[in-house]
Structures are given as C-alpha cells and as structure tokens.
Write a structure and sequence with these properties.
The structure holds two protein chains of two kinds. Chain A is mainly α. The radius of gyration of chain A is 20 Å and the shape is globular. The N and C termini of chain A lie far apart (59 Å). By secondary structure, chain B is an alpha/beta fold. In chain B, strands 6-7-8-3-9-10 form a six-stranded mixed beta sheet, sandwiched between helices. A four-stranded antiparallel beta sheet of chain B has the order 2-1-4-5, with helices on one face. In chain B, α3 packs parallel to α6 and α6 packs parallel to α7. The longest helix of chain B is centred in the last third of the chain and has 16 residues. Classes of the chains: A mainly alpha, B alpha/beta. At the A-B interface, α5, α6, α7 and α13 of A face α2 and α3 of B.
Chain lengths: 298, 260
C-alpha cells in the first residue's frame, strides 16, 4: 500500500469514528456541532495519561479507555443542560462547548498550551482500522436494538414516543454521551497515530465537516456516517488526482469549489441523506410488494 | 358494574380558557363508549389528560382501580391506557413492523429487552408478536415498508395495531374514521369489533354518528368542556341539550347526530 493511500485511509478511519459520534445523537434528532470539543478532550486526555515526561506514564492500553470514559463522563454531564435546547440553539450550544474546550486547553501550560503536546505511544494503521470496524459494528448493533428503535422513533415524533413509554430524556442523554465517548475515542486514536496533538487542529471547520458527513450520509441508518465519511474523504482527493493526471490544473485548484457545489446539489436532491431506509429496501429487495398490491387497492 | 375507567370532576384550563369543566364519567370493562361533541368541546383534551400529555388542574382519573392522575405520560401506557391520534402519528421513517414494535416499548423496559437486536434477528418473539398482530388486522402485506408510503386507510389501522401492542386495558381512539372512505371505514369497524371481542375496552372520539351508532353502546356528549349528556346512542338524538349544542337554540328540525 502506498504511503499516500494509507494516509488517506487513516483519515477515513478517523472521520468514520467521528461521524458515528455525531450520528448517534443525530439519529435521535439532535444536532451536535461540537465534535471538535469532544475530539480535543479525548486526544489530550489520552496524551496526558500516556505521557512519560509530562503526564502519568500509563500504557496506551489503559490511556485510550480512560480517555473514552473521561469524554463519556463529560458528555453525560453537559448533556443535561445542552439537551434543554432545541434545533439551531442546540447547534450553537454544542459549538460553544467546543470553543470552551479549545480555550481551556490553549491556556493550560501542563498540556503544552498553544504549542500542543507530543504523544508517546504509536497506534499503527491496522490498529485504527480494527477499532473503526468495531465502532461501525457497535453502531449497527445499537441501531438494531429496541433502544435504537426508540432513538429513531424520538427523531420522528418525541411526544408519541413518550406516550408509548420511551424515556425520551434519558435516551437522548445516553445517545449524546455515547456519541461523545466515540469522538473521544477518535481523538485519542488521532493523537496516538500522529504522535502529536494540537488544539488548533480540532477547530470549527472539523466540527462542521463531521456534521456534514452525517447529514449528507443520512441519519436514518447506521450506513449513513460511513458513506458520508467516504464521500468527504475521497471526493476532494479524487479531484486532486484527476487534476494531476490530466494536467488540468483548474481541477486541482478548484476542487473545493466543485466539492461545495456537489454538497449543495446533494442536499437538494437527497435532503434526507444519501442512505435512506427506502434506498436500503430497494437494494436488499425488501421492497417486494408495492402499495399498489390488491390489499391496498381494495 | 365493573368499571375500568373512572373520570371524576376533571378540570383543565389553558390560561383563562376552561377547556374541560368538571367532567365525570365511568367506562365499563369491555364496553365500547363514544365521546362526542361539537368542535372545540374538549374531547381530545380529555384524551390528552388521560394519557398525561398535559397535567390536570383538578380531578382524578382512575384506571382499573388505580389512580393514574399524577403518574408521568411515559408510565401511563404501562398502567394500561394507549391511544391512536386524530392526525396519523406513525413514525414516517420506520417500517410498519417497527412502528408496531414501538407499541411494545412499555413491555420491554428491562436492559436486556432494550439491548436485544430486533433488527438483526428476523425471527424473535417481539417481531413474531408484531407480525401476528398485523396479520390479525389483515395488514400482513407490508411489514418492511416505510409507513410514509402507505395509503391513509392502512396507516389508520396500523395506528390501532400499534396502540394494541401495548396490551392496553383501555384503548383511546381519536377520530379513527376521519378521512376514511366507506370501504376503509368498514374495515376499521370490523377491526375494532374484533379488538373489542378480545376484551379491550374502547373509548372513541368520533364525529361520524353512523360509525358511533353502529359501534358504540354508550355515548358521552361534551360541549364547551362540560358533559351535557350520557346515555345510549338511541337516546342521544332525542336529547334537547345535545340538539341545542349541535344546532343552536330554537332549532327543532333535523337530527342532531347528522349535524355532527
């Protein structure tokens, strides 16, 4: 495997994990624009716990789970105030949270402040790939459970979900906290793969991209985040590659213009995301009978 | 008489507007009762108070001898009351089977039941139970289909099946026949009779008086939040207060029911 391809696959793995972190709350109807904040927390927590020189010097086998638990705990606690907000206000509240995290880290000397922090243990690509696979499997499983069913029901109509016995608040809090934990995991893995963390790398642009992976990929099924992350990771690279191969420099230089246009077009033609329930039914052949069958026409 | 639902002296105001005013009535176990009245009479509000959508100002609701007045909305379904809605409120992005399985939620509160992968195991007791209920309602055609694509009349019946999955003692139906054509109304009527024969008590808000007369054995009439009549469907047409509510005072012609 070429170094360039491996580098891309690493980004794909990380993007997929982040995307699942935003997907879990999104599947129950909550928009999280604070991905960068959770990623920062996970990355710095694992880096600090693992660091021989500046931190606790615990092995990465322990520091990564500790980072996940730490991010989960923080997400759980902030979920209560944040989930009191709705719609665009929730977007703003999560964004504000990410800004607070970034502001804190930049001012903490023992975490290297604005210079960032080196990370000791290295996580190779295959390790990342395995964890990504496990995260994807976990999310598929979760969405298939009754709990996942309740999440999707809450996304559609929370008052009816309540009337059928779902504890809407707790399900939302857990979806948000589990999502936070996944992003913390992603952040920790990022740090261990690149062996350096820097708060400025986890900025608002990253949060926006991750939310876009999820919304563009589709929030109805656990396939959405993978498709979204694949699309966002590879399409700009594809333009660059094509531009380089064909010698058409405008393709390479203008790739973000074209990419932006594609995003707009996708949102117009598939407002509910690329992967929807109906699409999956068509692919798997679950849509054997159309509503035009005799029973419906009676 | 075996009373399954006892509503006593129920009051509810929204701001200065009293929408339910001192309403009391009993519903007998296994009976089919209609709650009727002109638009804005407070029928749906009474349903919302029973299912805990709004808190109650005064009064009490007893279900099967248990006071459910103060228990939160999400626990009422486990207490034995479930409902359908005036406007269809199925989850549009869920399949028929999933919508029906949502009705089982209150029976699957344990961690184990919550973490059971319904979507992976095609054959499991929850899905079987849901399929069986759909088959009983002659809806087995569409288990995997996203409900948003299904015809209105079918969706209305799926709502009833979903409500039944909660194994209610009392099933509240809010205008189940509204918007249905003659044939669909017939199908629904048949389904509701079968449900009633299985021992579920029905309380129905409905404007279609023909539907009420053929289905229900007892009628409670509300007007401006007050109960103005309680009796059989045969008596309701003759009652002067009901006629006045529907037709206005000084009206003596016509049949009250048809104006509804």
């Amino acid at each position: 495997m070429s170094g360039e391809l491996e580098g891309l696959l690493v980004i794909l793995c990380l993007n997929t994990i982040y995307a699942y972190g935003v997907f879990l709350p999104a599947a129950s109807g909550q928009l999280n624009l604070g991905a960068a904040g959770f990623i920062t927390l996970g990355a710095y927590c694992s880096a600090f716990v693992n660091s021989e020189l500046d931190g606790l010097g615990v092995s990465a086998w322990m520091s990564i789970p500790i980072a996940v638990l730490f991010t989960a705990a923080v997400s759980f606690l902030i979920a209560f105030p944040i989930l009191r907000t709705r719609g665009v206000y929730m977007v703003l509240a999560t964004f504000a949270f990410a800004e607070v995290v970034a502001g804190l880290i930049i001012n903490l000397e023992f975490l290297g402040a604005a210079q960032g922090m080196p990370v000791d243990a290295h996580m190779p690509f295959y390790g990342l790939a395995i964890v990504t696979l496990l995260v994807a499997l976990f999310c598929h499983y979760l969405m298939a459970t009754r709990c996942g069913l309740a999440m999707r029901a809450i996304h559609d109509d929370e008052s009816v979900a309540t009337l059928f016995g779902a504890n809407v608040r707790m399900i939302r809090v857990w979806a948000f906290a589990t999502g936070g934990a996944l992003m913390g995991l992603g952040g920790a893995l990022y740090g261990h793969h690149f062996n350096y963390v820097e708060a400025q790398n986890f900025n608002i642009l990253l949060s926006i991209y991750i939310l876009l992976y999820v919304l563009l990929g589709g929030t109805q099924t656990a396939w959405g985040p993978v498709v979204g992350a694949l699309f966002f990771t590879f399409v700009p690279e594809l333009f660059r590659y094509l531009g380089r191969e064909t010698g058409e420099k405008w393709l390479e230089d203008g790739r973000f213009v074209a990419f932006g246009l594609i995003i707009v077009i996708m949102m117009v033609i598939r407002p509910e995301g690329v992967v929807t329930r109906t699409l999956l039914e068509r692919i798997t052949g679950g849509r054997r009978r159309q509503p035009a069958s005799p029973a419906a026409a009676e | 008489m075996d009373v399954v639902l006892r509503v006593s002296r129920l009051d509810k105001s929204f701001g200065g507007l009293k929408v339910v005013d001192n309403v009391s009535f009993d519903v007998t176990r296994g009976s089919r009762t209609a709650l009727i009245g002109p638009n804005g009479a407070g029928k749906t509000t009474v349903f919302n108070l029973m299912t805990g959508v709004y808190p109650i100002d005064h009064g009490a609701i007893e279900l099967d001898g248990r006071d459910i007045t103060r228990i939160p909305a999400r626990d009422r379904v486990a207490a034995g009351v479930s409902r359908s809605f005036q406007n269809i409120r199925l989850m549009p992005h869920l399949s028929t089977l999933e919508n029906v399985m949502l009705g089982q939620h209150a029976q699957a509160r344990s961690i184990r039941a919550q973490l059971f992968p319904l979507g992976f195991a095609r054959i499991n007791k929850w899905a079987e139970q849901a399929r069986e209920a759909l088959a009983k309602a002659r809806l087995e055609e569409y288990p995997g289909q996203v409900v948003a694509d299904l015809p209105y009349g079918i969706q209305k019946r799926i709502e009833v099946v979903r409500a039944l999955m909660a194994k209610p003692k009392l099933l509240l139906l809010d205008e189940p026949a509204a918007g249905l054509n003659h044939q669909e109304t017939g199908e629904l009527q048949k389904l509701l009779r079968e449900v009633s024969e299985r021992g579920v008590t029905l309380l129905v808000v409905e404007h279609d008086m023909h539907f009420v007369r053929t289905l229900c054995e007892r009628v409670v009439v509300l007007n401006f939040g007050r109960k103005i009549f309680e009796g059989t469907p045969a008596e309701v047409n003759a009652d002067p207060a009901v006629r006045e509510a529907y037709l206005g005072s000084n009206q003596s012609m016509g049949e009250a029911g048809h104006a509804a």
